[in-house]
Structure prediction request, 126 residues.
Amino acid sequence: MSGNLGVKKILVADDDEDIRRLAKAMLARHGCEVIEAANGEELVERALNHRPEVMVVDVVLPSFSGYEAVAALGKKNFSCPVLFYSAVAKDDLLYRAHKPKGPSAFMLKPFTEGELTQHLRALLDQ
Prediction:
C-alpha cells in the first residue's frame, strides 16, 4: 500500500517506541519524513522546532496528555491538523470534549496502515 499523502513532514507522538517505529515505517512508504516524540513535552518542543504539516498524537502521553500538548502549542501560535488516537474506546468521548480548534480527528489503536492513511487523508481534506 503506497501513495503520497501530500505532506512531507509528520510528527508522531507516542510513549511506545514500537508504535512510533511502526507508524514511521507506514508513513515513510507514503513519502513522509517522520519526527518522533515520546511524551507531551517532546511533542511541543519538536513541533515548534520542526514545524510539521500534520501530527499523529496518542491521547495518553507522559508529562502531559496529547490534548494538553496541542493546547500548549496553540498558546505558542502553532497549529496544524492533528490525528489523535487511543487504545481506550471511551477516549473518543474525551476527544469530543477536548477537540482543539482547527482540523482534527480521532481513531482507535491498534490501527492498520490503511486506517492510518485513510484518517490522515480525511483530516487533510477538512
Summary: Strands lie at 9-13, 33-37, 54-58, 82-86, 104-108.
